[in-house]
Design brief:
The complex is a heterodimer of chains A (131) and B (133).
Chain A (H helix, E strand, L loop, with lengths): L17 E2 L2 H10 L13 H15 L6 E10 L8 E14 L2 E11 L5 E11 L5
Antiparallel strand pairs in A: 1-3, 2-5, 3-4, 4-5
Chain B lengths: L8 E9 L1 H11 L9 H6 L9 H16 L4 E8 L11 E12 L4 E10 L2 E2 L1 E9 L1
Antiparallel strand pairs in B: 1-3, 2-6, 3-4, 4-5, 4-6
Classes of the chains: A alpha+beta (131), B alpha+beta (133).
Chain lengths: 131, 133
C-alpha cells in the first residue's frame, strides 16, 4: 500500500507528555551499556518514536515493514531528568523509489513550558512488496 | 571541555551488541519493531536476519562521545543508516566507533569526524556530531 503523498505538510497531534524519569534514563543507558548517569543524547527518540507510531497507525502501516533511513537531532538544550517532553511530527516529504516509500519527517520536541528542547528529523523507509 | 585538541584521535572503541541488548533497548525506547527481535519476521520482510535498531548504533555513538569528552553537551547528532547491523542469535555483533576532533568554532562548538563500522563495513553514513567545547 503506497503512502499518500498528500500527507506532506501535515502535522500530527502532539504526543502525550512524557516525563523523563531517572528510571527511564537508567534503563535506556543500561540497554546501550552506558552508565555515567547523564541523559543519553539519543534519549528523545522515546518521544519521537511515540509520534512515529501514532503516524503509522494513522496511515495504516505495519511497523515491521518500516526501517529507519536516517535520524538527526539538533538540541536547543540538553534533556534533563524531570523534563516533560512532547513531540509533534510533521511529514516533510514522501517519495516512492523501487516500490518503497521514503517518508521524511520532522518532529519538534518541547518541554512543559512549550520551549523547544530538540528538533528531530528522520527518514523512514516503508518496504513495499507482497503485502 | 579540556582535552579536545583539534586533530586528536578518539578511540577506536568496540562495543558488543547482543539480542538481549536489543530486547532491553526495545523496552527502554518503546521501539518494539519485531525485526529487531524475531528472526522469522526479519527474514520474511527481506532482511538478512535480526538487525539492531539504527538508533541502537546511534546511541553507541552518543555513548562513545560521552566517554571521550566527559559527557560534553551534544548540540547535534545524526547519521544515515546505510547498512544493517545483523545481530546473531548467539554471541554478539561488534560495532566500532572512532573519530577525530575538529577545530573549535567562534561560538565554541566542536565538530567530531566519526567512522562507525562493523567488521570493516561502514554502518552509519554522513555521521554528524557537534559538541560544545
Amino acid at each position: 500500500m503506497p503512502i499518500d503523498a498528500t500527507l506532506v505538510g501535515r502535522a500530527f497531534p502532539p504526543t502525550a507528555p512524557r516525563e523523563v524519569t531517572a528510571e527511564a534514563v537508567a534503563a535506556f543507558s543500561a540497554a546501550v551499556g552506558g552508565g555515567s548517569g547523564a541523559v543519553p543524547p539519543t534519549f528523545p527518540i522515546v518521544v519521537t518514536f511515540a509520534a512515529l507510531q501514532d503516524f503509522l497507525a494513522a496511515v495504516g502501516v505495519e511497523l515491521s515493514r518500516i526501517v529507519h533511513g536516517d535520524q538527526r537531532f539538533r538540541y536547543a538544550r540538553p534533556v534533563e531528568i524531570g523534563d516533560e517532553l512532547t513531540a509533534t511530527l510533521t511529514v516533510t516529504s514522501v517519495r516512492s523509489i523501487g516500490g518503497n516509500d521514503i517518508i521524511s519527517t520532522s518532529s519538534e520536541i518541547v518541554d512543559a513550558s512549550g520551549a523547544v528542547v530538540c528538533t528531530a528529523t528522520a527518514t523512514i523507509v516503508h518496504r513495499g512488496g507482497a503485502s | 571541555m579540556s582535552g579536545l585538541t583539534a586533530g586528536a584521535v578518539l578511540g577506536p572503541v568496540t562495543y558488543d551488541v547482543t539480542r538481549a541488548d536489543l530486547v532491553a533497548y526495545a523496552h527502554a525506547s518503546g521501539d518494539h519493531n519485531p525485526i529487531h527481535q524475531d528472526e522469522e519476521i526479519a527474514l520474511a520482510v527481506g532482511l538478512p536476519g535480526v538487525i539492531a535498531h539504527g538508533m541502537y548504533t546511534l546511541a553507541l555513538v552518543g555513548r562513545a562521545i560521552g566517554e571521550w569528552t566527559g559527557d560534553a553537551e551534544v548540540v547535534e547528532l545524526g547519521a544515515k543508516f546505510v547498512a544493517p547491523v545483523v545481530v546473531p542469535a548467539e554471541g554478539a555483533a561488534q560495532i566500532t566507533v572512532e573519530g577525530t576532533v575538529g577545530e573549535t568554532s567562534q561560538d565554541g562548538l566542536v565538530a567530531l569526524t566519526l567512522l562507525i563500522t562493523v567488521g570493516g563495513t561502514k554502518v552509519l553514513g554522513a555521521p554528524k556530531a557537534t559538541i560544545r567545547a
